[in-house]
Structures are given as C-alpha cells and as structure tokens.
Design brief:
Structural class: mainly alpha
Distance between the termini: 35 Å
Order of helices and strands: HEEHHHHH
Number of helices: 6
Number of domains: 1
Strand order of the largest sheet: 1-2
Radius of gyration: 19 Å
Number of strands: 2
Mean pLDDT: 91
Largest sheet: 2 strands, parallel
Shape: elongated
Strand content: 5-15%
Oligomer: single chain
Low-confidence stretches: none
Amino acid sequence: MFQEACATAHDLKTAVPGAKYLLLCEWLDMTPISAAGTDVDEVLILRKAKRLGSQVRSAFSKREGRVARREDYGTHLKEHPFAPEVFERFVSHVRALMEDRDPEEGDVLGRGYF
C-alpha cells in the first residue's frame, strides 16, 4: 500500500507541482522507512501503534471470531487511542496551505526565500 501511495503522490505532484501529500494511517502496518526518496511529504500515524498482526486479525474474519475476541480488540483500541497531537500536526499542515497572505519583507530577508 505504501508503494501505491508513493505512486499516487508522484502522479499528483506531477499534475499539481505545489501539492502536498500527507499519508494518514490509523496504525503502522510496515517497518518504517524514509519517505525522503518519494513524493510523500509526511506519514502520520494516528494511533502511534502497530496494527494487530495478521495471525490475530485472521480470527476476526468470521462473525464467531469477532464475537469471541471482541473484548481483546476493545482493550487494544483503549490501549492505543487516537493521538490528538497527530491530528493537530495534520491540521497545522492544512492551515499552512490555506494561509493566504503576502510575504513580509522582513520574514523573506530573514529566511532568504519566499
């Protein structure tokens, strides 16, 4: 899925060069790798935890398994709640993109770019 997201980010940024591509994930589902070589700007993990392994998730494929393991799954969700600071980081990215103001000369000269 990460490779698909990277390909989509590339296609998007080819069509819209100023676009920002943020990848929001509920769980980490892979070994973290650098996104620096991709067009993905940032990967945000909303629960700051790994997803349950496939050997555990397979128990949820049928109704009986979901009923039997419901309490375990509820405990897992409670132990790994959504992280408000990750949502705040996402919102700060969106706010920065939506900011519509002329650059201030002092800021531009301090940074050296605009």
